[in-house]
Amino acid sequence: MRTYSFAGRWLVTGAGGMLGQDVLAALKASRIEAVGLRRADLDITDPVAVRAAVEGVTVVVNCAAWTDVDGAETAEEAATAVNGTGVRVLAEACAAAHVRLLHVSTDYVLPGDATEPYPEDAETGPLNAYGRSKLLGEQAVAELLPQDGYIVRTAWLYGEHGPNFVATMLELAARRESLDVVDDQHGQPTWSRALARRLVELGLAALKGWAMGGIYHGTASGRTTWRGLARETYRLSGLDPERIRPTTSAAFVRPAARPAFSVLGHEAWEEEAGLPPLADWREQLAEALATPGFAALAARARRSGTG
Questions:
Q1: What are the DSSP calls for 54-89, one per residue?
Q2: Residues in Cβ contact with 140 at an 8 Å cutoff, skipping those fewer than 6 apart
Q3: pLDDT of residue 6
Q4: Torsion from C-alpha of 221, 223, 228, 233, nearest 10 degrees
Q5: How far apart, in whole angstroms, are the C-alpha atoms of residue 77 and residue 84?
Q6: Is 10 within 8 Å of 34 (Cβ atoms)?
Q7: Residue 80 lies in a domain
Q8: Which of 37, 70, 272, 301 might form a disulfide with 268, Cβ 3.0–4.6 angstroms?
Q9: By residue range, what is the domain housing residue 81?
Q10: Alpha-carbon distance 114 to 22, whole Å?
Q11: Does the structure show a pLDDT above 90 at 2?
């Protein structure tokens, strides 16, 4: 197994979340020394605690975030404390300690009204409180760490270690004959394990001086809709994709507005980091569904005989 003696020690914040757990696993697989701190272990809005946590590390991967998109509509101040102020505290500590920061952001900082993939330098324009809070975090990293800050926007994330759309579709397949799924929102379903591996690759490239600081789009290649993702999930799981019926966003009104178009461009990977874009979403989904957690959900759905 390859090892990276130059990598030093890494810190993963938000280590209890879906992505954080996968990042720690990817670091372990690469034999990189790492410490993972959960929300209960580290309050990223506490400057003293953050400075102590950053001391002696070479890379910080920030997976800590307020992720309740709808909840942020009525608790924007609380969401901003984590996604904006907390990220600024992290960036200040990393700047003082000369530590590279990989900060995970979101497509929600963009307006979602495009018809072609958003480039990394596209004009921002959040539609909701969550997006506004995340944009403040991006701005803090760009301001305080122009060379050593790496903003990685992701979207439509799913994985084994947290609630997500793919798992929900498989769980519902065991109970319902058919499902109505939104078919007018476009995006790039991204497996959290694939993103975690890429974050490790980016951090290593940064330590070697190969990757420039700035914005990267950590989403799968290709594009689909939520219905398209549900149908492919069923097909790959041995279920009938015709059970997934189309509907519109208007049928599922939620407190926070969702972008209709979340397809991101990936030019910066090759141009700024010497890395290829992430694999196509179908390839990622097939690999994810073969993992034990998702395979068990699919098997349960098949056994149910529903539909």
A1: HTT-SEEEE------TTGGGT-HHHHHIIIIIIHHH
A2: 84, 87, 88, 91
A3: 83
A4: 10
A5: 10
A6: yes
A7: yes
A8: 272
A9: 5-162+190-222+263-279
A10: 31
A11: no
Kindly list the catalytic residues. 130
Smallest CA-to-CA distance from 148 within 205, 200, 82 is with 205
d(CA 128, CA 55): 35
Number of domains in the chain: 1
Backbone angles phi, psi at 115, to 5 degrees: -120, -10
> Of 224, 209, 168, 195, nearest to 22 (Cα)?
195
On whether the pTM is more than 0.90, the answer is yes
pLDDT at 198 over 60: yes
> Is there a domain that residue 248 lies in?
no
Residues 6+ apart with CB under 8 A from 283: none
Nearest to 218 by CA among 199, 193, 204: 199
Distance of CA 72 to the CA centre of its chain: 18
- Which amino acid, residue 271? E
Location of structure tokens 């990394």: 120
3-state SS of 236-258 is HCCCCHHHEEEECHHHCCCCCCC
pLDDT at residue 1 in the model: 52
Residues 173, 243: Cα–Cα separation, whole Å: 9
| Domain presence at residue 240 | no
Name every residue whose Cβ is closer than 8 Å to that of residue 55 and which is 6 or more positions away in sequence.
97
CA–CA gap between residue 214 and residue 212 (Å, rounded): 6
What are 183's strand-pairing partners? Answer: none
